[in-house]
Structures are given as C-alpha cells and as structure tokens.
Amino acid sequence: MRIGVLGTTVAADASGPVGLGGPKQRALLAALALHRGRAVAIDTLTDLVWAGAPPPGVAGTLQGYVAGLRRALEPDRTSRGGGTLLVTEQPGYALRLPEEDLDTAAFEHAVTTAHGRVAPLADALCRGRDLPPGSPDAAGLGALHTTLDEALALWRGVPFADLGEVPAAEAERARLEELRVLANEDRSALGILLGLHATVAAELDALTRQHPLRERAWALRALALAGSGRQADALAVLRQVRDVLDEELGLEPGAELRAVQAAVLRQESTALPDPAPAPGPATAARASTGPQVHAALPFPTLWGWSLAGRADELAALTDLVDRVVAGTDRSPSFVALTGEPGIGKSRLSIEAATYADAHGMTIAWGRCSQDDGAPALWPWATVLERLGSELPTSGTDDDGGAAFRAWETVVESVLAAATAGPLMLVLDDLHWADTSSLRVLRLLTEAAVAEGPGPRLLVLTTWREHPPPTGALAEVAEALARKHALRIQLRGIPAEAAAQVFAQITESEPTEAETDALRRRTEGNPFFLVEYARLARERGDVAALMAEPQPPAAVHEVLSRRLAQLDEPTRELLQVASVLGRIFELGTLAGTADQDDDQVLDRLDPALAAGLVEEDGVDRFRFTHALVRDTVRSSLPQSRRARVHARAARVLAGRNGHEAEIARHWLAAGPRHLADAWPAAQAAARSATAVFAYVEALEMLEHALRAQDQDPGSDDRSRFELLTDLAEVLRRAGRWIELRGVAHEAIEVADELGDPDLLGRAGIMTSTGALWQAAAHAQVDPMVVAALRRALDRLPDGDSPARCRVMLGLAGEIYYGATPQEREAISAEAVAMARRLGDPALTLSACLHAAIAVWRAGTAQLRLDLTTEAVGLAERLGDGISLCSALTLRAVAAGELGDVTVLDESLSRARAEADRLRHIYAQLVLDSLEVSWAAMQGRFDEVEKIIEHMQGIGEVVSITGYEEAVAGALLMQLLWQGRDDELSLAMTAMEGNTFLPIATSIVAVQCRTGHLDVARTYFEGHREDVGLAMASDTWFSPMAWSMGAEAACYLGDAQLGATAYQCLADLTGRPACAGSGSAIGPVDMFLAMAAHATGEDDLAARHADRALELCATWDVPLAADWVRRERERFSF
C-alpha cells in the first residue's frame, strides 16, 4: 500500500488507486500520515480533521472514519482481526507504513541523501572552485539528477491539502517546501554541471521569484544564464539580487554571489567536459511540459463514448476558457498537454474545444502530420484557413529574413483574430511538427504579450512526452514554461473510468475482477482500452482476452486480429494507404492501387465500419490512430513497400503543392529510382524555400545530395546546381559560416568541369549579400581566393558581368590577405566596369561589394559616396533588400565620419526597412551601430533592449563577427555605465577568444578602471601585440589606435603616444570606433591624450576643446563627462 499526501490524499495498492471515501476520511488519513508512524491522540486527530472545531459526539464519528479507512486500506482484514496498517495504539491510532510507501518520507529521504552528494559540488560550482576529489562522473551526476526528478515528481499539489490551514499542517508544509527548494537548487546545480543551462535558467527564473532571498538560487540562475550564452542577463540577475538583498535585509551579496559574478565576467565554463546521457523517464516527464481539420467542422468530432476519468483536467481547461472569454487575463493563455500515444490528448482537446465553441470562442485547429512529405507549415495553413487567411509566399529575392517575416505574418493573423474575438488555437501532435511550424509557435509565445486590453487567446498544444522533446520542440516547451503555461500530463485513467468506457462500447458492465485486469493490462490508456473493448464485444470472452500479453504488443495483436477480419481486397488496399501516410486522399489511393474511385470507396467501407479508418473531409481519409497505420504498414514487406512508394510518386507527379510528398516517395522507392529521387528532393527544397521553410529545404537538399552521390547517371553540372541551391538556402537562413563549406565543394565541382563561369559563381558564394567581411578577422580562405584568381585568368578579357562579379568577390575575400591599395584598386576597377556595362543592378551590387572590400578609416568618405549611389540605384530599381543594405552601410560610413545628420536619417530609414523586411543581418549591423551611441547618450533602457535583440539573433543565424559584435555591445554598456570592475574582467576575458587585435584595448581598459599595475605588466609582456595593433589598417584599427593613445597617456609612454597621434591625426572630427560598432567618444580626445603622452599639453588642450564641441554636436553627454574627467586628471 502506498499513501500520498503531497497534494490531496491518495492511496494505491498493487491493483491501482484505492477509494478513500469522503473529505473527512481523507483528512483523517492525512492527519495520521503527518505523524509518520507515531501514535496520535484522539483529541489531536479531531483537532486536525475538524480544524479545531469538532462537532458534538465527534469521538463516535471519528471511530466511524477509522473503520472506513481500515476497510479501504485493508479489505482482507477480518472485522475483529488485528490490522497492520491503521493500528490502535495508546493514546489513539497510528499508521504503520514503510518509509518508502509514504510519499513525504520517500521525498525527504531522496532529497537529503542526494543533498549529501550534491552539496559539495554545488558549493564548488558557486564558489569557482574545482570539484572535490571523488566527485561523481557524468553518469553519476545524471543518476542524481534523475533521483531528484523522481522525488520532485511526487508533488501533486499543496502537501496535506485535506487538512486545510491547521497550524501543524502549515508547519509541515513549510518544512517540506524548504526541502523542495533545496531539491530544486541541487537539481539545478546538477543541470548546470550536465550542460542543461537553458532549461535550468528557465526553471530558476520562477524559483527566484518565489524565494527572492535564496542566494544560492540566484547564484545558480546567473551561472545557468551565462552558460546559455546570456552573459548580459546573468549580470542583470546579479544586480537584481544585490538590490533585493539591500532593500529587504540591508545586506550586501555574500561570498558565493561575488564569486559567481567573477566567474560570469570571466566567462568560465560550468559544464562537465562529457555530459551525462539524457536523464531517464522521470526527468523527461518533468522537463517536457498533411494534417487535416474536418471539412465541415472547425475541429474534429467527438467519439461515440463519453469522456471518463478526466474531470479535473477538463475543469482546469474550461476554467481557462472562461477566463479568456471574460478577458480576465491581460495576456494570452497557453496549455501544454502531454502524454503517451493513445492517452487521450486529442480527445481532451476536443472536449475543451467543444466547451469553448459553446461559449463563443472561435476554434482554429491545426493538426501536425507524421508523414515526411507533409508540406512545411501545414498546421498553420489549416489554422489560417479557418481564420480566413493563408500562408504568405516568397518573392524572388530573399535576404535571409523572409522566413521570419512570414512567421510574423502568421502570428499577426492569429493575434488579430484573437483581438477581434476570443480565439482558441489548438495545435495537435506537435511531436510531428516541422521545425518551421514550431518556430512560428515559439514566436507566438514571445509576441503574445498584451499591453492593456489585448488579444483574448487560448493556445492549447499537445505532444507525446516520450521520447522527450528535442530541438525546436524542446525550445517550444521551454518558451511555454516561461509563459507559465498550464501543464497537463495525462496518465492512464483510473479503474472506475476504465470500466465506464468498457461498458459503453461493449454494452455490458465488467466485473470488478475484469475491471482490475483491464486496468492493469492497459495501464488506463484509453486507446488500448477501446481496442480491447471492441474485441471483447466481438468475442464475448473478456477473461481470455485479459490473459493475453500486455500492450503495446497486445494492441498490435488486437489490431492485427481486427485487420484479419477484413476481406483481402480491403486489407491490400489499406497496405497501399499505409504507405501514403496516416492521412490519404481518394484520388491518390485509387491511382496508386490502380483502381477506380468507386472500387476504392467500396473496399474502404469495411475499414470504416471497423473503426480502422475514418473520413477526414470529402474524399479524404485517415487511419484512426497512428498505431493502426503502423500495424498495417509493418505487414507489407520492405521490397513491396518500395514499389508502392514508386507508384505513389508517379501518381502524384506534376501536382502542385505535393513536392515534398513526391520526394518522400521517390526517396523511399529504393536504389532503382535514385535518378527520380534527387531531382524530386531538389524540387521539394525549392518549394519549401518559397514558403520560407528553410530547415525543411535544407533537409531535402541533404537527401538530394546523398541520393545523387549514389546515382551513377548523375553529372557534375547537376551537382553544381544542387550546391548552388544549398548555398542560397543557407544564405537565406542566415547560416553564413556553414555556407563556406558548400562553396568549397562547389569550387571542386567547377574545377572538374573546367568551367570558369561556374568557378566564379562558386567563388562569390561566400560574399554575395554580406554586410561585414566574409572571413573572420585576420583570416583568408586560400581555396576561395585561388578559385577566384583562376576564374579571372580563364574568363575572357574585357568587360563582362561575370568578370565584374569575380573581381568584387576577390576584393572582399583578400581583405586580410592583401594591402588596402590592392583591394581598393580591384574594387575601383570592378565598379568602373559595372558602370561601363550600363547595368544598374550590377552597378548597385558593385557599390555594395566595394563598400565592404575597401572598409577602413581612410575610405569612410568613399564608402559614403558608394552607398549613397547604391541607395539611389536601389530606389530606382525597386530593390528593397539592396536598399536596406545600402542604407545600413551608409549609416555606418556616416557614423564613422561623425556626420550625425546623415547617420540619424540613414539609421532611421535602414531600421524601418530592416524591420519591415525582417533583414536579420542588417538588424545585427544596425544594432551594433546604434548601441554605443545610445550608451554614450545614457539611454540604457534602449541599450538593454538592443543587446537582448542581438543575443536573440544568435539563436537563429551564424554570421562571422557575430560574437565580437555582441561582446562589443556589452563592453559599451559596462563602459558608459561606469561598471569598472565588470568592464576590466570582461575585457581581460576576451583575450584568447577573438582574432581581433585587442592588446591596446586591454591595456587602456585596465588603466581606465584603475588597475595601472596590471596594465603596465600586460603592456610590458605584450609589446609585440601592441605594435601589431598599432600597425594595422582595417575597419578595427581606429579602436586600436585610440586605445593605444589612452594607454600611452596613462603609462607616460611617449613613443606609443607619438605613434598613436600619427595614426589618428587624419581622423580629427570623427568618433573613435571599430567599424560599425563600439563608438567610444571623439578621436580628438584620444589625440589629446596622445599629445599629452609626448609632452605637448597645449596641443592636447586644443584637441580636448574640440572633443567637447563634438560631444555637444553629437549629443553624447556621457562622453563629454569623460572628457572633462580626463582633462582634470591629466591637467591639459
């Protein structure tokens, strides 16, 4: 017997749940459990059960409840025999139960035992120390994590809920809650060590809100955020806890929090080198939180039997419906409904939708398909169709942000519908959803925040909990958790409910023994129950049926037996249908089976009558459960299955919108059809690209490349076109780093073909559309550069678009491998060629390419001219993507020149275009540009938002220079907020983690933050690095030169000061910056510091005066304050 009081009082024996009677009887059992085996006086029991106000004659009433409990807990006990569970013992009664059978005792034992193992690890983690000797390995940590998961999973609600608010229960709740918090902290520490940073951060967000004075929880949260790459958020959390402790207790953060802050700033890793295997089922349960709608109804119809065993879950959903309809909540509501296959997720969703429909809500139902060939975003297509809209389609040009724009359009349509009236959105079977569909849902959770009266929206999602969610579905689960979604994990229904379902289907009541056996065999899974009941109705021998093997093998056998009762033509037809998918159309099935429509309908009738197949609209059908389809498909040998795939592909050939399905069939048709498979996959990829489903497009192209590898009839030119498609999709998806490998393979194929035009096309793959340098700082890709040079040698002499593009690509690729003069000469020649050819689009592209290839401080005016020309050409051509790029690069050049008028105008227009087009790359560059100006102006709320946006971009793209851009933004925030200690540590942490020449920056920052000894020691040990930084002439050089001037001023190094002054002299009147980011004040102030280092204080004073004038012109008061402080410090 097992007793549970971590929630309402429950009991279960080997046969399942035990009925405990009414509330007072449950309260009595809870009161006994509260005392953990000790005898409880009758007066104490009555006070607990009746909350200190027992009625007259309570002793007799209590005795009646004791007798009722004894009957429930020990049904085999004789009326006068001695009990073993609920025993009489002076001065009252006692509950004799092994510790492991009482959930509170089991919970406490598991937590305290695990804490003894975890505490030293957590202490080391939070104090920045090595793990103690003898610490568990990754597998051991995973086992501890699972132990705590299982312990925490015992909680079902408020402990001792049946005892109300009596003091003894309240005291025990407080003690158990303390243990629960301890368990969560220990579990979080283990999660960090196992590398589960994002999940831990989300969980600790709630924990620190509930327990704001738990320093350990705050420390772990900061470490988890930092481990997720969210250093700014981690530091913000540490500032928040500092404020909380100060306001609530008047205390400073303890040593542990201070150690964590240092670790975050040093960007130290907290995960083990070899993470443990994924936690087991208990962990998964805690962590997890074309399809077709019915043609005539807004959501699927109900089954022919009533819902049973789900009263609490349905009540929770209907309560949420009522709140949404009434507009009680300011923000949309979310539900995560999970469970095993057949557990009743869809059925419960339909019941809730039925209730919502009756109460005035619009129902939009999107069901995901398990079929590989289902179109991307299909569940959203059915949702939008219900809302009177449709999926947006792609244009010919796409900068990588079009998918996001499409997703935003879907989200906006949903929110608009919910604003017009209460809307219930059901997304069923998310475990089968394509990645793009899941990303739309995640975007909806992030966007759905009401300001004032907002959309009345209820989003109900369902997915299978095993295997645990991974990838995009795991991200959705985490996003829903952050939105405090109602989480419902369905388990098997109890024996009483199982008997109710069985009786409705069989039209006969099962005996108590049959009910118990049925519950054990099916574990309360409604689908299994229904299948057993159907077979029992046909056979009439329940006992024999129950003696058969347990599910899921039993269900497979049940289904096989039901299938065997069909005639052979129907079974053969279902085999063909199972290859088509869980959902299939009449025409496709008829063509694949080589039968006419009427013949197919006749042969489907027996399957419809048997409940194996159901109609899903006009001429559309679906297997009633995935297990039905799986059972049928497994009966078809693999070779025959491949032939059915081939026939299906031929039938579907030429049908628009079926490209993915056609490709799936050809890919599964076996080696004889490879020549059909890869072109079909390529066509499916292009179709997916047109609706911004880049993940699905990439998957199809990978299939196409593998199939083409095995096709002896394919040729290199076809291979090149496949690689070109792959490069384009990667570019659109913002995956620039991966694109380089594709370019390398394309170069090899072009060389094999000996085609200079193809070689040039391959060589420019990595630079086309880029807004920063294509390669990482100081890196050159020799393969790409050599290919571009070979292409130039082999292309015909004279002007041509191909030659022009190759020259532009070469100028960009040799940015770090040639002199500025060589790059500028090639770029100038290419731009002149484009103008001579009289091709406005080519000239536009040339101006943009050249602006990046010649990027350095001395070309800022040239770049402003080139980008201004590009803006005009883009406007004339109506090229929105190029206009956005041109405005972005124009804003950058204006910023470098200190022309704030052009900067503000271009930045505003570029931002509007980037936001409109969802041009992610442009948004990143604009964020990098704007964040330092906002920081110098003291607009730190905006700075926080910009940095958050930059960090979010990193979740979906891979762009060279992204990490440095975010690091630069964070440094600007620390610099202008005066957070010197954090700035010093963060700057030092960058050493060895970037190709950028930051030696002068490290010295200058250590000087500025008061660490002169550290700065001097570093300078002496890195003179060569400092010299290289001062000798460079790239986009980053003005930053290196300016930091060199500041270092020279602090250290009194006249030679370094003279070098810095010479480098910066031509940049007077401009801001010191690093390309598009990290503006740190007027160059003139750094000239003043360089002059002071050389002993020329009068010159320094003139430059400082000019710096203050510029600060006023640019409206950067924090920079002006810094200038004044430094003038006072150095007296010039």
CATH class (first level) name of the largest domain = Alpha Beta
Oligomer: single chain
Classify the fold: give the CATH topology of the largest domain.
Answer: Rossmann fold
| Unreliable stretches | 271-298
Summarize the structure.
By secondary structure, this protein is mainly alpha-helical.
Key attributes of the depicted protein:
52 helices; 63% helix; Rossmann fold; Serine Threonine Protein Phosphatase 5, Tetratricopeptide repeat; mainly alpha; five-stranded parallel beta sheet; three-stranded antiparallel beta sheet; flat; 14 strands; 6 domains; 1132 residues; Arc Repressor Mutant, subunit A
Walk me through the structure.
- This protein is mainly alpha-helical and 1132 residues long.
- It folds into six domains: 2-101, Arc Repressor Mutant, subunit A (Orthogonal Bundle), CATH 1.10.10.10; 103-270 and 280-286, Serine Threonine Protein Phosphatase 5, Tetratricopeptide repeat (Alpha Horseshoe), CATH 1.25.40.10; 288-489, 3-Layer(aba) Sandwich (Rossmann fold); 497-547, no CATH class; 715-854, Alpha Horseshoe (Serine Threonine Protein Phosphatase 5, Tetratricopeptide repeat), CATH 1.25.40.10; 977-1130, Serine Threonine Protein Phosphatase 5, Tetratricopeptide repeat.
- The strands form four sheets. A five-stranded parallel sheet has the order 8-9-10-7-11, sandwiched between helices. It has a three-stranded antiparallel sheet with strand order 1-2-3. Strands 4-6-5 form a three-stranded antiparallel sheet.
- A hairpin with a 4-residue loop joins β13 and β14 (620-623).
- The chain starts with a strand and ends with a helix.
